[in-house]
Amino acid sequence: KKLLQYSVVGLGFGMNLHASLASGKEGMMFTIISVIGTMIIGMFIGRKMLKVNRDTSYLISSGTAICGGSAIAAVGPVMSVALATIFVLNAIALFIFPVMGGWLGLTQQEFGTWAAIAIHDTSSVVGAGAAYGEEALQVATTIKLTRALWIIPLALVTSVIFKNGGKKISIPWFILWFIVAILLNTYILDSVPEVGKAISGLARKGLIITMFFIGASLSTDVLKAVGVKPLLQGVLLWLVISIGSLTYILVG
Q: What is the pTM (predicted TM-score) of this model?
């Protein structure tokens, strides 16, 4: 987990703030709509169709809508079932999305937008974007950061709905350091670009190692711990968002 976060921060040293914002601005409104829509659809699938208990259904919807494990940790720190569900789907997406993007002939802009909307966890979005290309990485991370910012209002709303006001809100602080890295690279290290390239190069290698560990950590025990209905809710919601966002991108 730490290596993954350090690698994400390191990738920030290879990005320029102005270029990243220019790449990701087209997907901002789409992101807002997708977050709200995913929460509504997720609760419908979980509660109405599959009869998953309220807390688990809400957490899986939150993790899919915003920022994977970070969102779940923010609104319900002890919900291991929801975390396991999102973890399994993140691991799958990290490997198959770049392959599917190439097979579908998606452009860097299209893939970056798709990955940012359809993949749950920030670090998995960054990993998939980096695997597809430099522009895809910039687009994906910019749009994904917009999704990640929803953690704070979601956690506050959740504390009211579930009366969990005494629980500490968990914020993925590595995202803040990722932004700091981009700012440093844009305004401080612009005169010595070799430094930023060297750090981001090491970060990419760290990301490759992390991908191996993620794959190695998947086991039948993890799948059994999830349970059938919560996993089915996560898969169905993931398919709806993935196919829906891809259709919007291709048609639009």
A: 0.65
What distances in angstroms separate CA 142 from CA 20, 117, 139, 224, one per listed residue?
A: 6, 11, 5, 35
Distance CA 65, CA 151 (A): 10
Whole-number Å distance between alpha carbons of 248 and 251 = 5
How far apart (Å, rounded) are the C-alpha atoms in residues 169 and 85?
21
What is residue 78's predicted lDDT score, i.e. its pLDDT? 43
Instruction: Say if residue 178's pLDDT is above 70.
Output: yes
Model confidence over 104-113: pLDDT tens digits?
999 998 999 8
Is the pLDDT at 99 greater than 90? The verdict is yes
Q: Calculate the CA dihedral of residues 99, 219, 78, 118 and round it to 10 degrees.
A: 10
Neighbours of 127 (CB within 10 A): 31
pLDDT for 104 equals 92
